[in-house]
């Protein structure tokens, strides 16, 4: 586990990262808390939220906003700028690089004069496995 934010590596942080490391999709804080409880880990929900925020701030997690407005998290596999292709059925996620997008954003910035830009692109679709299930 990377520790790029110079904070302590706590038992709770290790437990949360263990839940996220093998996952290929995004998980909500509540779901992570449920999985921790199911594995007999004693971590409070507030601690899960604080730890997820710290890990995201440190660049160790990606987050997406779900349709209900809550956030879901997954472990980053790269520190480079990337985007997500997410299955709307099972949540499987693939990190993708969208060549040319950065240039378009720079042009928009220059045209409109915005500063301190950031962006997040998530593309929803149906993964091959879910598409096969839908055909059956």
Quick structural gist:
The chain is an alpha+beta fold. It is built from five helices and six strands.
How would you describe what is shown here?
The chain is an alpha+beta fold and 136 residues long. The chain folds into 2 domains: 1-79, Orthogonal Bundle (Arc Repressor Mutant, subunit A), CATH 1.10.10; 81-136, Dna Ligase, domain 1 (2-Layer Sandwich). Helices cover 39% and strands 18% of the residues. It has a 3-stranded antiparallel beta sheet with strand order 1-3-2. The N and C termini lie far apart (40 Å). Residues 1-5 have low confidence and may be disordered.
Helices and strands, with pairings:
Elements lengths: L10 H10 L6 E2 H10 L6 H13 L3 E5 L5 E5 L7 E5 L5 E4 L4 H12 L9 E4 L2 H8 L1
Parallel strand pairs: 4-6
Antiparallel strand pairs: 1-3, 2-3, 4-5
Q: Would you report the number of β strands? A: 6
Q: How large, in whole angstroms, is the Cα Rg?
A: 17 Å
- CATH top level label of the largest domain: Mainly Alpha
Share of helix, binned: 25-40%
Mean pLDDT: 83
What is the CATH third-level topology name of the largest domain?
Arc Repressor Mutant, subunit A
Main traits of this protein?
three-stranded antiparallel beta sheet, 2 domains, single chain, 18% strand, alpha+beta, Dna Ligase, domain 1, 6 strands, three-stranded mixed beta sheet, Arc Repressor Mutant, subunit A, 136 residues
